[in-house]
Amino acid sequence: MEQLHNLETPALLLERARMDYNILRMQTQVASLGCRLRPHVKTSKSLPVVQAQIDAGAQAITVSTLKEAEQFFEAGVQDILYAVAIAPNKLAHALRLGARGCRLSVIVDSVAAAHAVVRACASADAGEMLPTLIEIDSDGHRSGVRPADPVLLDIGRVLDAAGLLAGVMTHAGSSYDLDTPQALAAMAAQERDAVLACAQALREAGLPCERVSVGSTPTALSATDLTGVTEVRAGVYVFFDLVMAGIGVCGVDDIALSVLTSVIGHRPDKGWLIVDAGWMAMSRDRGTQKQKIDHGYGLICDVDGAPITELWMSGANQEHGIVSLRAGAPASDLAGRYPIGSLLRVLPNHACATGAQFDTYRVIEGNRIVATWPRFSGW
Amino acid sequence: MEQLHNLETPALLLERARMDYNILRMQTQVASLGCRLRPHVKTSKSLPVVQAQIDAGAQAITVSTLKEAEQFFEAGVQDILYAVAIAPNKLAHALRLGARGCRLSVIVDSVAAAHAVVRACASADAGEMLPTLIEIDSDGHRSGVRPADPVLLDIGRVLDAAGLLAGVMTHAGSSYDLDTPQALAAMAAQERDAVLACAQALREAGLPCERVSVGSTPTALSATDLTGVTEVRAGVYVFFDLVMAGIGVCGVDDIALSVLTSVIGHRPDKGWLIVDAGWMAMSRDRGTQKQKIDHGYGLICDVDGAPITELWMSGANQEHGIVSLRAGAPASDLAGRYPIGSLLRVLPNHACATGAQFDTYRVIEGNRIVATWPRFSGW
After folding, report:
1. d(C-alpha A189, C-alpha A223), whole Å
2. ipTM, interface predicted TM-score of the complex
3. d(C-alpha A121, C-alpha A104), whole Å
4. Which of A238, A273, A295 is the last residue of a domain?
């Protein structure tokens, strides 16, 4: 077996045991609420990871790009939700997937986009359909129809007339700004209530609403009652990250992804270690900046994955990371402790962003590399 | 010819004419100073772009990863400087490139790293050498030996004893924090003076110092006298970006790279357009945040590339960009002006970071796509 010490750095490490535990935890949670789990695969973009989610019980997936839909459909996944309001220039591609047998559903939050989907399906050669969900804004965070907006029924009627209305969906993205169990549980209830209200409004207007879909990792793990909801979407739970630890839905020791890096320089005059993981490896995501603990570009661990809590990645250039003592940490001979060539591991702020910088996961058990899994990127 | 309106979004556009002009401008500037230009290819990671730089007169390149060295050596580039202090775990890879005929040089800024290079070369099967430059810290920005530090001569002696000492190099990265011609010219002089002092110290100690290398795009374009310097490195000038425009070394209309995106939603209650270029397309780079004009995640242009100065990308999620009116802009019916499916172009804060999110450049002349160029990423 290859050892970490034989890798060129930076390299993306994935702790299999942690990932498996995270998958089991979410699958169990969502099943206990009586819903189907539809994992969002934008986090991993890797077939072996998604296969592990399917093996644990997931029967469908959520994607953020048609490339993800394409890749996972070719690998055998049939039921796919593209969870970004579809641009008209993507409809032909979506219909090609449908013509090949993919059960691809899409979302819209406007009458204009609904008409575009209806027109595209009407002109499809083989009579393909794109079952369409109406996106609901449950928290003022981003996109979607506000629950009380009468446009909901206008969109519903346009879709239903073409036999395309499949349901409603929402994503409580503002759950990322919370950090107490009480606030998270309340947001999960708010997310649920928003889609349930819309589902009811559609049904009262005589429109069908088979699917009622919610989800974000924080709300999925904080929900206690999802009666009326049919499916839960969540993505980042598969790896977790420092942002999720700051929100409080995982511990730092649940984070399955890290970047292996080498010490390449010392600046004792500044109290710095220089490492060969910069923002190209970590991504520019600074998602913990507004949380109680700002981890800079990542939390530094030793090569075995144990956090070195007095250090943080305080700065980053393209291929250089600057590792410093945290404010208040006792003075330390960093150059002596971490000579040139020392290996460190860096836990990411945001697993989706850091993962996207690499084309390979090095799957590890302890310090042994047990597999190499490809991941793709792009559109 | 394919038109922009036929592309799926998001897509990375490259205006060929602007790139050619930027290449010519830098080549002319550096030649006028009597130096060789060694373009940093980390910006493009694309052979046709580098070929255009070579066609304009560049005879050597700078890389930020050994993958870049590998790819461009295989494409015929012989003289390559890997400009990140080399980690010991990369030396075997570097020597394999050397064994295949690549004239790869490396950098170090410590005695320990110098010893590692010497040891690796001594044990190389075919007697390969890695000519080594000592990295100098000319501005307190990141890595390197401070000019007055006696360790300079210690490193020089270790390398020279093995016949590996090739010269000195520096990168005045703090030029990115400046925005007046006077300050930039002063930083260019400071960058030059730091390496010249070190070159002189080495020579006075009887050590060779053939190569004297400086560079950053802002200092390269602001230098007026580089007597004693042998080569200039610069990268981002090939495309330019909003950070460079904020520094003042280019205009917004010199920026050759943009992301084509579609309007996928409206939130009139919030004054938002939602587009399908989020941070996965733009990158998380917020390099203009500390400049006089904060462009958020990018400057919005119409499909022909004309800036719409009252708009900016004020927020971004993975595949969603939030486009808002700037503070003080008159109220405007954005939904009416930019219906679902409207195409916009977004100029990036940082071309290196945005480019890295894509695997293809769509090369355009006007609104016609005249070529598709691949780019690679990773390590």
Report:
1. 7
2. 0.97
3. 13
4. A238
Count of domains for chain A: 2
Contact list, B319 vs chain A (CB under 8 Å): 42, 64-65, 84
CA distance A345 to A338: 13
Residues B100 and B135 in one domain: yes
What pairs with residue B373 in β-bridges?
Answer: B361
The answer to whether the pTM exceeds 0.90 is yes
Cβ separation of A279 and B265 shorter than 8 Å?
no
Check whether residue A164 and residue A220 sit in a common domain.
Answer: yes
Q: Is residue B311 part of a domain?
A: yes
B76 and B220 in a common domain: yes
Q: How far apart are CA A243 and CA A351, in angstroms?
A: 9
The verdict on a CB contact (< 8 Å) between A319 and B265 is: no
Q: What is the spatial distance between Cα B256 and Cα B348, in angstroms, rounded to a whole number?
A: 10
With CB atoms and an 8 Å threshold, state whether B340 touches A276: no
**pLDDT by residue for chain B (379 residues), tens digit each?**
578 999 999 999 999 999 999 999 999 999 999 999 999 999 999 999 999 999 999 999 999 999 999 999 999 999 999 999 999 999 999 999 999 999 999 999 999 999 999 999 999 877 889 999 999 999 999 999 999 999 999 999 999 999 999 999 999 999 999 999 999 999 999 999 999 999 999 999 999 999 999 999 999 999 999 999 999 999 999 999 999 999 999 999 999 999 999 999 999 989 999 999 999 999 999 999 999 999 999 999 999 999 999 999 999 999 999 999 999 999 899 999 999 999 999 999 999 999 999 999 999 998 899 999 999 999 9
Q: Within this chain, do residues A45 and A128 fall inside the same structural domain, yes or no?
A: yes
Closest residue on chain A to B82 (Cα): A319
Q: Cα distance from A75 to chain B (closest Cα, Å)?
A: 22
Same-domain check for residues A7 and A63: no
CATH code: domain of residue A267: 2.40.37.20
